[in-house]
Amino acid sequence: MSAPTPAEEAFHDFNQLRADLASLKDSVAALLKEQAKSASSTISDSISNSGDQINAKMADLNGAAKHAGDQAAAGLRSASHDLEATINHNPLTAVLIAAGVGLLFGMLGARN
Question: What is the pLDDT at residue 7?
Answer without folding.
Answer: 86
